[in-house]
Design brief:
The mean pLDDT is 93. By secondary structure, the protein is α/β, with parallel strands linked by helices. It contains eleven helices and 15 strands.
Length: 323
């Protein structure tokens, strides 16, 4: 079968399409004939920086949709031919992917395989950030960095659905503002001046919840606009700067809480909790109308093209590989 691998760290050019043996499921595992694979920023960090790469060569890809090809023992009700989406820790950029049954989900009725590929990673992440970690309450004000990206597109809609009184987004360019405004945001600010803008529109009070995937110095700026008893949640370090160190002097004056979240860690340490989260999150799509638009689709062999687009910071919504 064909799969995308990289044998060394580097730019998109290190991604190669190769022939590899087809995986066979063991106990608690299934194999999936991949229809679509999601492209995530974690894939970029794996290829460029070795993020969560234990050895080379490595097959990237965290989420797929497709048909179950074969099942191992003890996989519950999963059967060959069933339409599913799956969250996996590598190996999604392939014609056949191996997945633990604990992180495989039947695609909700009425949704296509293409839509299904947008669900496993981004939707549970956004749901967990708002409802589990930040504990969104009705009438909270919410700020989301990266508002035009995958998580940001969903988070704006979920915050609005959850009763937020105001939802503010931050984008890197004016080209992305229109996309974000269609995703539940009341106002969208540019990254260069967002901290000043947020304090202006909130009359200096700041926001109740802020979600930050950027890290570094940007994280400090995000913290500066969190109001009294507010909650700041970090879920990435796309800036690749040194993490900002938080001390009592940063949190005591306003009673601010600072937390973090990683869906990769949750999948590895508590797959049952991930399944519960995913089921609640998927419900917002089938019943609440939440959607994650696919902005670009690439052939499997052109995974490098998808990485170039995502790294350019010009994309919005979700990128997929068509297998």
């Amino acid at each position: 079968m064909r799969a995308i691998v990289f044998e060394e760290l580097g730019g998109p050019e290190v991604l190669k399409a190769v022939e590899v043996p087809e995986p066979e499921p063991g106990p608690g595992e299934v194999t999936i004939e991949v229809a679509y694979a999601g492209v995530n920023f974690a894939d970029i960090k794996a290829r460029a920086d070795g993020y969560r790469v234990e050895s080379l060569p490595f097959r990237p890809g965290l989420e797929v949709s497709g048909l179950i090809r074969a099942v191992g023992a003890d996989v519950g009700d999963f059967t060959p031919g069933q339409e599913v989406a799956a969250f996996i820790n590598g190996g999604g950029y392939a014609e056949v992917a191996l997945a633990p049954a604990s992180s495989v989900f039947a695609i909700p009725g009425g949704l296509s395989l293409r839509t299904g590929a947008t669900l496993p990673s981004v939707l549970p992440t956004a749901y967990a950030l708002l409802h589990e970690v930040a504990r969104l309450r009705e009438c909270d004000t919410v700020l989301v960095r990266g508002a035009a990206g995958g998580v940001g597109t969903v988070a704006g809609q979920l915050a609005r659905m959850g009763g937020a009184s105001a939802v503010y987004g931050v984008v890197s360019s004016l080209d992305k503002a229109e996309h974000a405004l269609k995703s539940g945001y009341d106002q969208v600010f540019l990254a260069d001046t967002f901290d000043l803008d947020v304090l202006r529109v909130t009359d200096g009070r700041g926001v109740d919840i802020a979600l930050d995937p950027v890290g570094g110095e940007s994280f400090r700026r995000t913290l500066s606009v969190v109001g009294r008893f507010g909650r700041l949640v970090s879920f990435g370090n796309s800036s690749v700067e040194e993490p900002w160190r938080i001390g009592p002097g940063d949190t005591y004056p306003l009673g601010v809480s600072v937390a973090g979240f990683s869906i990769l860690t949750l999948a590895a340490t508590d797959p049952q909790r991930l399944r519960e989260l995913a089921e609640r999150a998927f419900h917002t799509v089938t019943e609440g109308g939440v959607e994650l638009p696919v902005s670009a689709e690439f052939a499997l062999a052109d995974a490098a093209g998808a990485h170039r687009l995502l790294e350019s910071r010009t994309s919005t919504g979700k990128l997929l590989l068509r297998v």
